[in-house]
Amino acid sequence: MFRVPLLIAVALVIAFGGGILSALSVLNASVGFGAIRLGVWSAFPQAQTDAADPYAKSHRAKAGRLLYGTAEGLTFTASHDENGHQLIGTCSYRIVGRTPVARFWTLYAADAAGRPLATRAELPGSHNSQSILRKPDGSFEIAISPTAQPGNWLALPDAGRFSLVLTLLDTPAAGSSGLIGLEMPRVETIGCGNE
């Protein structure tokens, strides 16, 4: 007597629950389809255009962020090191190399929601292309660590998992034709804990 209504109720719960969870998963996973990957860095160049898919538009509306226009800039995110390990606040890292050509770039560590990690006011919580020391060949090395490091140092609070956000402003990389052959800096692990 109650078997058929029970089976219908279970089917509806699975259908609606699965649909809602899959939609939330897609909205929280990225800013849309069409990601490009350069080493450990990923970007979504179509997210800021009218051609963006519905998920990208929903993600942008949910986050309440304005994205850069195609000619303005491109944001790259790295959440893993070169060996594929998740970036964690108890480890130390270094970014080595150079960025693609850009008039200006910024770098900071962010939480899962994309917000910059909070550091004490006197510690360097971000860097930009005009504030770092460079080698004679134009490359640079930035240490990312919870403890102070010589040279370019990005202070890292013990915040668990995090991502690095590199924004290139006024760059040919923002156009789809400029993505081929770009050189991105490497994200290498120095050590974790007391190593």
How would you briefly describe this protein structure?
The protein is an alpha+beta fold. It is built from two helices and ten strands; from the N terminus they run H-E-E-H-E-E-E-E-E-E-E-E. Residues 72-171 form the DUF1214 domain.
Write the layout of secondary structure elements.
Elements: H1 3-29, E1 36-38, E2 41-43, H2 54-63, E3 73-78, E4 91-97, E5 104-110, E6 126-128, E7 140-145, E8 152-155, E9 163-169, E10 186-192
Parallel strand pairs: 7-8
Antiparallel strand pairs: 1-2, 2-3, 3-9, 4-7, 4-10, 5-6, 5-9
Structure description:
This is DUF1214 domain-containing protein. It comes from Ciceribacter sichuanensis. Residues 72-171 form the DUF1214 domain. InterPro entries: DUF1214 (IPR010621), DUF1214_C_sf (IPR037049), UCP009471 (IPR012038). The structure is a single chain. Strand 1 (36-38) and strand 2 (41-43) form a beta hairpin. It contains two helices and ten strands, in the order αββαββββββββ. The protein has 195 residues and is α+β, with helices and mostly antiparallel strands. Helix content is 19%, strand content 27%. The longest helix is centred in the N-terminal third of the chain and has 27 residues, at 3-29. The protein starts with a helix and ends with a strand. The radius of gyration is 20 Å and the shape is globular. The strands form two sheets. It has a six-stranded antiparallel beta sheet, with no helix packed on it. Strands 8-7-4-10 form a four-stranded mixed beta sheet, with no helix packed on it.
